[in-house]
Amino acid sequence: MPDDRWVSTTMGSDQGEVRDTIISEGPGRGGPGNWGQGEGGSQRAKVRIAATADVHCTKGSSGRIEALFGSVHERADVLVLCGDLTDHGTQDEAVLLARELTHVRIPVVAVLGNHDHEAGTPEKVADTLSEAGVQVLDGEAVEVNGVGFAGVKGFLGGFGRGTLGFWGETAVKAFVQAAIDEALKLEHALAHLQTDQRVVLMHYAPIDTTCEGERKEIYPYLGCSRLEEPLMRAPVDVVFHGHAHKGSLTGQTAQGIPVFNVAMPLLLGSGSEVPYMLYEL
Ligand SMILES: [Fe+2]
Ligand SMILES: [Fe+2]
Which end of the chain is more exposed for a tag (fewer CB within 10 A), N or C? Predict the structure, then answer.
């Protein structure tokens, strides 16, 4: 575990229950206009983040999402959803998810994942969720209770020396450019944050450590080191991602920024009592 701000809710953990040394009053739901503005500085009360990913809402998920997150306000001040919100990116799934998320009483910040693109209309998924008060980030940033959140979907392409290079066929260059564009969007989003504390959410993994557990053959499809580059140039406190359902919970960037794979199947498979990771800043 790279740092102690991760509040373990793992069954049987000696870290026990959520700490009671916090917290500010949650800002209450109601869309971007009701999101507390930051005070900045060291006097700001800590913010509890509930982070998860890969909810994969289907047409048959009615009641499931509400059951998963209906009481998250008792533990956290903001819910972070790191993509694959829907299973196939259809309008039916998006509408159902949006309806379920209206039961969440705290701000919800999200990015889309590859599954949200499957139907070819990711903008409709984003719009539907936005109309329900979810802050969907795609190269943008938002501030909640004084903490900044920057989000992108990210892209694939491999890690380290295995990262696919911008060379050869036009199709390969277009593929690599998609990853570069996502990295630039993240850099742009981070540049717009003025907060002391900054959280990054993305769907794909920026490092390979949090992919460990998946088959090595599919690592290049789980994320890309290009997504780590903006994290080297802007102060970031923590990164959350999903996508690697069978990966590892924790890792860190080359510069020591904690990275958490919060794919819900991974969290629940690791014994978490709740379908999200709790982190306080
Ligand atoms: Fe997924
Ligand atoms: Fe995914």
Answer: N
- Residue-wise pLDDT for 144-164, tens only, equals 999 999 999 999 999 999 999
Ligand 2 is an ion; its neighbours by CB within 5 Å are 84, 113-114, 243
Nearest listed ligand to the Cα of residue 266: 1
The alpha carbon of 117 and the centre of ligand 2 are apart by a number of angstroms equal to: 10
The whole-chain average pLDDT of the chain stands at: 88
Q: How far is the CA of 64 from the centre of ligand 1 (A)?
A: 17
Answer whether 205's CB lies under 8 Å from 243's CB: yes
> Is the per-residue pLDDT at 41 higher than 90?
no
Please give the pLDDT value at position 50: 98
Q: Determine the straight-line distance between the first and last CA of the chain, rounded to whole angstroms.
A: 16
pLDDT at 40 over 50: no
How far are the Cα atoms of 57, 97, 133, 158 from residue 62, in angstroms, in the given order?
9, 8, 19, 36
Measured in Å, residue 244 CA sits from the centre of ligand 2 at 7
CA–CA gap between residue 111 and residue 152 (Å, rounded):
6
Is residue 186 within 8 A of residue 227, CB to CB? The reply is yes
The pTM (predicted TM-score) of the whole model is 0.88
Looking at all shown ligands, the one closest to residue 52's CA atom is: 1
Whether residue 148 contacts residue 197, with contact meaning beta carbons closer than 8 Å, is answered with yes
Quote the tokens at residue 64. 């499931």
Beta carbons of 206 and 225 less than 8 angstroms apart: yes
For residue 11, what is the enclosing H or E element? none
